[in-house]
Amino acid sequence: MSAHTPKRLLLSGLLVSTTLAGCQSLNRKQEGGAIGAAAGGAIGAAVGRANGSTAKGAILGAVVGGTLGAVIGHQMDQQAKKIEQQVSGATVERVGEGIQVTFASGLLFDTESSTIRDLAATNLRNLAKSLNEYPGSDLLIVGHTDARGEDSYNQALSERRANATADYLVSLGVTRTRLRTNGRGEAEPVADNSTEDGLQLNRRVEVAIYASDKMKADLGRGFTPER
Question: What is a single Pfam family found in this protein's UniProt entry (predicted)?
């Protein structure tokens, strides 16, 4: 055995430990700070898909890590606090270097409808205000349904609801090019569809908020994020 073997084994152990720690951190809410550079876009997107969450996959796939990720994370901390204070009824979660905002479908739409309810206007207006205050982010809006009814109907309904939410935000001044939409139908449940409570939780719209490529490029050149 070479005299260098123990050192190589030690370095290998450290590398494995660091990699595992980085992967585990992707499954936790992040309160600012950086995710290691090894936990980049491909790993983040894979973790999101494995967790059955298109929204989380989009956020984790945009992770950059390092000092740049720390700056983005700090701004997302600030924005998340404001959204939580101003958008009643929504669940706000810090994920990676982004934010996930989840609306119960009944908060935005009547049963089997994709027309925004009048009562939802204040919530979306306050969300749009925050998005316009922090213009450096991009968004993915994902519609979900419960498992009742035909798969094809649920898929189409989830797409219409995601598009309706995006259109409404655009009408409130959010730039269209910042938005993407996706309908997942009944494919990504977060609760048991055999119970009424579970069905209600599965009917939802998720808004993934993460740094745009322009924001990352500007920060990389030392520019202050637009506010």
Answer: Gly-zipper_Omp
